[in-house]
Design a protein that fits this description.
Radius of gyration: 19 Å
Strand content: 15-25%
Order of helices and strands: EHEHHHEEEHEEH
Structural class: alpha+beta
Number of strands: 7
Shape: globular
Length: about 160
């Protein structure tokens, strides 16, 4: 279960072109590994029973275009934490998304990407801005506590004998 955040510009200004954003992220976090995933339609082409095949005739032109476009992903791994960056389609790009996993603190990495450019990080679940300048890791700590309780609860329910 990842912590989901959105990176966006102040006052909903676009972040820039894909190349500008990739270069900015790569200069802030040189360890980011970039990969291109095949489009969804390419992934399911040899799966005739996939449910999307029956849905294709109902899709709008925009949905078909999105599903036929390869998607760029960025992966940053640092000790006990990883960040997957995605949402690099469109021109200009208005926002990108990040899924954070692990136990290490992602705030310094997010700050390295965003602070020099004036970008904001929004906690998706709480719909609130994270104060990167203050190094506020409270939203991350709250998420990990929630995640750990959910995992612990699932483990307990699976280990209880059935009546």
């Amino acid at each position: 279960m990842p912590w989901e955040v959105t990176i966006k510009g102040r006052n909903d200004e676009p972040l820039g072109s894909r190349d500008e954003i990739v270069n900015a992220i790569s200069s802030a976090l040189p360890a980011v590994k970039w990969r291109v995933e095949p489009s969804m339609l390419e992934q399911i082409k040899d799966m005739p029973d996939h449910s999307f095949h029956t849905l294709l005739p109902t899709w709008s032109e925009a949905t078909r275009l999105h599903m036929s476009t390869p998607h760029l992903r960025g992966d940053f791994v640092d000790n006990e934490m990883s960040i997957e960056l995605f949402g690099f389609e469109g021109d200009p790009i208005k926002m990108i998304h990040a899924d954070v996993r692990g136990n290490g603190n992602p705030i310094p990495a997010l700050a390295a990407i965003c602070l020099p450019r004036g970008w904001l990080v929004i906690d998706v679940a709480e719909n609130r801005e994270i104060d990167l300048a203050a190094g506020d890791s409270t939203p991350w700590e709250q998420f990990t506590q929630y995640r750990d309780r959910a995992i612990d609860s699932t483990r307990k329910s699976q280990s209880e004998p059935e009546n």
